[in-house]
Amino acid sequence: MVKNFERSNHKSPRDLFLGAPSHNINVTVLPYHCKFVCFCIQYYRWLNELPTRNFVTVCPMRVINSESSTMTEGIPSDAVGRRVVCDGERGTVRYVGTVPPTAGVWLGVEWDNPERGKHDGSHEGVYYFTCRHPTGGSFVRPKKVSFGVDFLTAMKQRYEMELKQAIGEEIKISIKTVQLVGFEALSEKQRLENLTEASVANCDVCGAGPENEIKQTTPNIRTLNLSSNLLSSWEGVALITHQLEKLHELDLSHNRLSLPAEPASLSPSFRGLKVLALNSCALTWTEVLEFAPMWPQLEELYLYDNAITELHRPVNVLQSLTLLDLTSNPLTDGSEVLKLAELPRLEELKLSHMGLSSLQFNDVGPGCKTTMFPALRSLVLDDNNIAEWSVVNELDKLARLQQLAIDRNPLMSGERNRETARQLLIARVARLEFVNKIPVTPDERKGAELDYCKMFGEKWLESGGSRDQALSRPSEEFTAQHPRYQSLIQKYGAPEEGEMKKQKPFALKNQLLTITFVCPDASDRKPIEKKLPDSMIVQKMKGLLFRLLKIPGSELKLTYTSSKMEGKEIEIDNDLKPLQFYSIEDGDKVLVRWT
């Protein structure tokens, strides 16, 4: 028979021409290459999601009648698209039926971990289902998998049966650690009623269960961890959250959730949600934006380790977001990040481990402030490929940036250069209060900026700079490389000729000093040898000693001795001066005493 369909407006075309309920029919699609590809149209909500074109053959593979067939006994009628677990591995059912020449019913499963699978959904040249990964699928017998349990069953197993062993132990609930104490004095019913933070992670939760029982049993939950379960749809999640009127924080990481037909219609079920984790859910950014109308009040969104390779500007969604975590997504193009620049309340952006090498705000020139990311105060760029100081210069254009994490980038590599790299970061970005999670003190900033002026003073003069401000005309090239330099000269004055340094910021092998720290009044402490840049200020050296000796810098009294002046100790008494100010040389000893 031949039927014409509009590809965009038929959700269940099977019952239009087969005379059987749509949920009981599997459909085989015969595309041009003539291999059989079997799909359950229930899994594809729209015809245009099927891999078909005009005049392909669509054949009913099997009409299953629960009254006359026993082949699906024990298998849910909506099995295709459902999540299952087998030997600890989770997957999604893509096919239910026979696989000739074997007898009996098989489940075709696409596994979350493709290493668990064996093929791409085909057997002996016949495609029964398709997978994202060429080895992501396999066939398993129904008796070997579990379709999961409802929410309250999991809660009771976790908190009523296992709680006796868990008293006093710490459990993980979302991003928090909670200690279970005092529960022995409560009845089982009270325990569940009083819970405000609950975790049923890895408990094979597949749905809500009986209507309204969640609301009656666990009415006070504010923080809920549903990660690593068998939830297959947002509709299923909404049936749970709709009954949790106080829900504030939700973790759905390591689930695979299909797109609802009308996401906005589910927003009442997430009306109070402020924090949402969707880590490792195989999501694209397009899918995130399609889901977003469900979360009108969302403030924090965690999307670690998904499949986000490109971004699109959020339009009328995610406008209340203050924190976004995109860590470990393959988003290597820095220009993609700018598509988030108009989020009005975004304060924290985590972009670690993504392969980024550059960020540019080309709407303004060097030394100016961009209108992009108007509220951004914290940026995490750890574990990327940033190797150029021009990227750091660009970050100074962010008007409110106060916290920067940029560790484990080529820019920061090489332990002997870490202190100098930190100084340069502080000097190049004016408002930083934390660098790599360590606070920047006013004295450290002053020392870093003064040293920066000296480090590049000679290049400044060569480029046309002058101590006479009326004659100072540094080149555009120098200004682009050092956009803050002129303002620092105005703040501190130009460095004297004798103060200027000829070294390049990372050519430090000639400026590294081997220094031995000795504690003459504590014979039990062994001497410690360190290589330090001669530009390190005394305050930074005291910070190093605090980490080594656990003695606060305010209690330290430092002197040094040199082989050239045996028997004489020279006091190190100014925290803001660099080591070279005291003429400390390679091989000298710093004597450490404390009060």
From TrEMBL:
InterPro entries assigned to the protein according to its UniProt record, in alphabetical order: CAP-Gly_dom_sf, CAP-Gly_domain, Cilia_flagella_integrity, Leu-rich_rpt, LRR_dom_sf, Ubiquitin-like_dom, Ubiquitin-like_domsf, Ubl_TBCE
CAP-Gly domain: residues covered: 97-141
Record family assignment: Belongs to the TBCE family.
The keyword Cell inner membrane appears for this protein: no
Protein origin, superkingdom: Eukaryota
Subunit structure: Supercomplex made of cofactors A to E. Cofactors A and D function by capturing and stabilizing tubulin in a quasi-native conformation. Cofactor E binds to the cofactor D-tubulin complex; interaction with cofactor C then causes the release of tubulin polypeptides that are committed to the native state.
Subcellular location: Cell projection, Cilium; Cytoplasm, Cytoskeleton
One Gene Ontology cellular component annotation held by this UniProt entry: cytoskeleton
Main location: other
Name used for this protein in its record: Tubulin-specific chaperone E
Role played: Tubulin-folding protein; involved in the second step of the tubulin folding pathway.
Keywords from the UniProt entry: Cell projection, Chaperone, Cilium, Cytoplasm, Cytoskeleton, Leucine-rich repeat, Repeat
Matches recorded under CDD domains: Ubl_TBCE
